[in-house]
């Protein structure tokens, strides 16, 4: 598949990789596929949804919801709702957030692999894939580049290079999120953002 969404910027220097401690483990996957009641209902409408849940706000030591204190949603956060009430789920979400904070390049590669898996699974089930990356966070995914090396490119059927963001890597996928960050700019056409006051 030919994609012309590659941008010409030098490869990201990942100095953190050599300096970071080993306080996280690399999970086998980051996205969950249709694991909550709303997304399961979406299947009857022809959609399969992959959602990324991580530890929100400052739980991981880095603020992943910059407006949470101002909007006061940190007190009523869905982080512990439903399956999030279980300590194993909270530990897994914290692990993902630490992985993202300490090794964003590898994190984005794993997100890309997960979206590739979602595409295969949705195609097999004859469903339209949707991706929500801010299940319990509020990250500006549109400004995070994705490095695609030769190995990852072969797995995804794309050209190697640095893509502007995950949406540019998967232009055929509809992404959506809710945000409390009002000044987000340069939103990709396949990324639907709903402002949540």
Question: What does this protein structure show overall?
Answer:
About 9% of the residues have low confidence. By secondary structure, the protein is of the alpha/beta class. Helix 4 crosses helix 5. It is globular. The chain starts with 5 loop residues before the first strand and ends with a strand. It has one domain. The strands form 2 sheets. It has a 5-stranded mixed β-sheet. The protein has a 3-stranded antiparallel β-sheet with strand order 1-6-5. The protein contains 7 helices and 8 strands; from the N terminus they run E-H-E-H-E-H-H-H-E-E-H-E-H-E-E. The longest helix is centred in the middle third of the chain and has 21 residues.
Which helices and strands, and how do they pair?
Blueprint: E1 6-7, H1 15-19, E2 31-33, H2 37-44, E3 47-52, H3 68-71, H4 87-102, H5 104-124, E4 128-132, E5 146-148, H6 150-156, E6 161-163, H7 166-169, E7 174-179, E8 191-195
Parallel strand pairs: 3-4, 4-7, 7-8
Antiparallel strand pairs: 1-6, 2-3, 5-6
């Amino acid at each position: 598949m030919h994609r012309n969404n590659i941008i010409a910027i030098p490869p990201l220097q990942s100095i953190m990789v050599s300096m970071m401690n080993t306080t996280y483990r690399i999970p086998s996957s980051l996205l969950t596929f249709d694991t909550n009641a709303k997304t399961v209902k979406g299947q009857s409408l022809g959609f399969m949804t992959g959602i990324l849940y991580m530890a929100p706000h400052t739980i991981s030591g880095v603020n992943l919801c910059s407006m949470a204190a101002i909007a006061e949603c940190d007190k009523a956060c869905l982080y512990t709702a439903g399956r999030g009430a279980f300590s194993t789920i909270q530990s897994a979400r914290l692990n993902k957030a630490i992985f993202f904070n300490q090794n964003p390049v590898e994190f984005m590669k794993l997100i890309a692999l997960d979206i590739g898996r979602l595409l295969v699974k949705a195609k097999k089930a004859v469903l339209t894939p949707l991706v929500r990356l801010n299940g319990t966070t509020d990250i500006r995914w549109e400004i995070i580049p994705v490095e695609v090396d030769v190995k990852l490119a072969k797995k995804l059927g794309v050209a190697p290079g640095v893509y502007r963001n995950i949406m540019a890597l998967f232009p055929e996928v509809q992404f959506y999120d809710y945000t409390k960050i009002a000044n987000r700019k340069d939103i990709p056409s396949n990324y639907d953002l709903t402002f949540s006051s």
